[in-house]
Amino acid sequence: MSGVPFLLPVDWWALGAVIALSGGAMALLLLEFLPHGPESNRAALVSLVTLLAAGASVFVVRDSRRALFDGMFVHDGITVFFTFLFCAIGILSVLLSWDYVKRTRINRTEYYALLLSSTLGMVIMAGSNDLITVFLGLELMSLALYVLVGFRRSHLESNEASLKYFLLGAFASGFLLYGIALLYGATGTTNLQKMTAVMSDSPMLENPLFVVGALLLVVGLGFKVSAVPFHMWTPDAYEGAPTSVTAFMSAGAKAAGFAALVRVGLSTLGAVRTDWVPVLSAIAILTMTVGNVTALLQNNVKRMLAYSSIAHAGYVLVAIVAGGRDGASAALFYLAVYSLMNLGAFGILTLLGRGTEERVLVSDLAGLGFRHPGLGIAMTVFMLALGGIPPTAGFMAKVYVFGVALKAGLVPLVIIGVLNSVVSVFYYLRITVAMYMEEPQAEPTHVSWAVPGALAVLAAVALTLWWGVQAHALLDQAQRSVLGGM
Amino acid sequence: MREYLPVLVFAAVAVLFAVSTIGVSTIIVPRRSSARKMAPYECGVEPVGDARQRFEIKFYLVAVLFILFDIEAVFLYPWAVAFRQLGLYGLVEMGLFILVLVVGYLYLLFKRAFDWN
Amino acid sequence: MTILFAGLAAVLVVSSLMVILHKNPVTSALFLVLAFCSLAGIYLTLQAEFIGMVQVIVYAGAIMVLFLFVIMYLNLGRDVETGIQIAVRRGLGWIVGAVLLAEGAVMFGRRWGLGPVTPGPSRPPVGNTQALGQILYSRYLFPFEVTSMVLLVAMVGAIVITRGQERARRESMGTRAGARGPGGRPPRTHAEEAVAEPGLAPAAAGEPEEQASVAGSARP
After folding, report:
1. What transmembrane ranges does the database entry give (chain A) (predicted)?
2. Do the interacting molecules here have an ipTM over 0.90?
């Protein structure tokens, strides 16, 4: 704060992912103007290389822990875990988009540039230890997503989805920003660690500024993870967006929102945890119940998975309510598994249909299991995993989350969660039933096979099963990440 | 605040001038109106339709791009004021900032966002 | 100083009220400009010169232009909502307003403090803008650089949303002429379907492909 600015030592490796992703996005924008054919895969390839480079650069320094830029951005276990997760989500999304965007005629370089920018925003959110950086990361991620959701410009639903997502997202950003301002007013800092230190000195819950600020913060982040009652945009945005974008945002944006929540929960809100349990419990119960019950009524698979993703946000919230390091590692584990299952399920939807047509109704899946056994098995695995049935990773994730919640003494929350899981099995099985026990009523759905997309789905299936059997590998990773995060 | 005194005087003079010219003219103006005189003036031609028409989206694009570069310029201002203290370090970081936006500018240029047709 | 603040605050309150009370949206927007300018004046009295300038340059200058553009695009001469919509909106407005008023009352009653932090000296040793520059470009370096990426994404987004059309159209023409779909027959698009079934074709004039997918997509 003295008049002389201090030179900051920059650890380039720890910033590797950020540098790689921004460099990749910029390179793509310029690459657009070198001559290429309309069917060029160049942009997708560059994105893949960028994401791999980002993951690799973090891998090099995966064990180092440091705070950069005066604690604005931290490179710790949580950052490393989420950066890997976001790179994986990005890679799978690029593979799923590869043929899908060509088929639906949205194969533009900007698509991939925005995808990389959005991933960059997620990485910044995960690594930010300061509310200002959280906000900027969130805006970067969201701005790119608003455009991606509306990428099918000639499609009215896509436009509508984009507009709704944008308007409500802008509101949520306003709430978040106002909350940050109030928290700054109450504590005099936006740095999470310093904020926690200030709070241990004085009773913050007496201060309405702090309480209102924290509530607004929860609202802003709750919107991004689509927790009820801030979930209104989710079904429309997920349905109207190009399916590959839906896959990307359902996994990435949610995980990024939770990354910020986990960090806030471990530090600032964690210090006054007991006072937050009722509020967050209520949100968790609402989120699980509304998501699952509404999902029962859907005929459009994209919409159904949108409500299912709301419900899954509720399960992760249970882990956040449980709090502490155990809760955080359960949340990390659940998010990794959830991202995979959801990417896989949406990934299969990207393969359905011919040209620009969308075949995403439950009735469109009729008979798919016999005509395309591979797809049928893969979809069944994802549905079982989403429903939390062994031997899939989804089961282990739920077991771990509910176990942590039990240990924290949240028995009612666990009971409601388990009941909700039972309800969810109905609609997940409905898809399986449609695939194997129903005859297509109209022309059977055409499957547009594509090697990259199929590879992505295969990878998701393999990991979903592998983590179901060998859950402790991922769990250890999550636990170590959280331990290194403090 | 003393350094704002000239601004205040200037603002006061501006307001006084506006109020006095309009006020005086309303007082001394002769009022003889006719239907033709009250019609909106459009270069001596009969007005064609409403002034509120829909116009092309490219105007909006120009406005949006203007805001983006406006914000960039706003960032340059405190940087320039603090440049002596920041030194080479400041030059490099602003160089990075500008580099990202130059990429954006080149993108817009190649995309012909600045071409009117 | 107090007189200056009172004057600016009065202008601010009155012009803000005019923004929501005036029937003509363009006039409302112009009152908003006045509100922004008086807000900038208040910033100046707080010795936040930079924020005051930004308020005028960015908000009153640039963002208000966008406001006016949007008003023109929407072609809103007057309020066109029906009675029930207005009633609902008014009701909501009163409720939110009451909540905010209650919040203000609580704030004055309980004296929401700044917490443990005491505000710094009212006058920084160097100019406000210079102090801001020194902080912004040292401690807040990372957020500053991220801002450039946010601006970049906004540029790309603006182009994609407004200018994507011609290029996408050209591309789709190319694929339709050249590529053949799997199974040997050319891919059948919504546009062709819509042409084949005139009942589905929308009444509105325009690009067939633009509109046809609306008719072609089903929504439960």
Report:
1. 12-31, 43-61, 73-98, 132-151, 163-186, 209-233, 245-264, 276-297, 304-325, 331-353, 374-397, 409-429, 449-469
2. yes
Q: Could you give the angle at the alpha carbon of C178 between the alpha carbons of C176 and C183, nearest 5°?
A: 80
Asked if B98 reaches chain A (Cβ–Cβ under 8 Å), the answer is no
User: Is the backbone peptide bond immediately before A391 cis, with ω within 30 degrees of 0?
Assistant: yes
Residue C116 · residue A202 · CB < 8 Å:
yes
Residue A280 near residue A320, CB atoms below 8 Å: yes
Amino acid at B5: L
- C74 has a chain B CB within 8 A of its CB: no
Count of beta carbons in the 10 Å neighbourhood of residue C204 = 8
Residues from chain C contacting residue B59 (CB–CB below 8 Å): 69
Interface test with B, best of A1, A10, A29, A112 (most B CBs within 10 A): A29
**Per-residue DSSP letter, A68:** E
Cβ neighbour number for residue A381 with a 10 Å cutoff: 26
pLDDT tens-place string over residues A217-275: 999 999 999 998 899 899 999 999 999 999 999 999 999 999 999 988 888 776 676 77
Query: Does C16 contact chain B (CB < 8 Å)?
Result: no
Instruction: For chain B, give the mean pLDDT.
Output: 84
| Mean pLDDT lowest among A29-38, A120-129, B99-108, C110-119 | C110-119
Phi-psi region of B80 (alpha: psi -120 to 50; beta: other; left: phi over 0): alpha
Domain encompassing residue B26 = 2-110
| Distance (Å, whole) CA A60 – CA A18 | 14
Which residues in chain A have Cβ-Cβ distances shorter than 8 Å to C214?
A: 155-157
CA–CA distance from A326 to each of A100, A323, A406, A479 (Å)? 39, 7, 11, 7
Fold annotation for C1-78: Four Helix Bundle (Hemerythrin (Met), subunit A) (1.20.120)
Asked if residue B6 has a cis previous peptide bond (ω within 30° of 0), the answer is: no
Which pair of structure tokens corresponds to residue A401?
A: 């989350």
| C195 inside 8 A of chain A by CB | no
**Domain positions in chain C:** 1-78, 128-170
Structure tokens at A211: 């309480």
Residue B85 lies in a domain: yes
Kindly report whether the global pTM for this prediction surpasses the value 0.90.
no
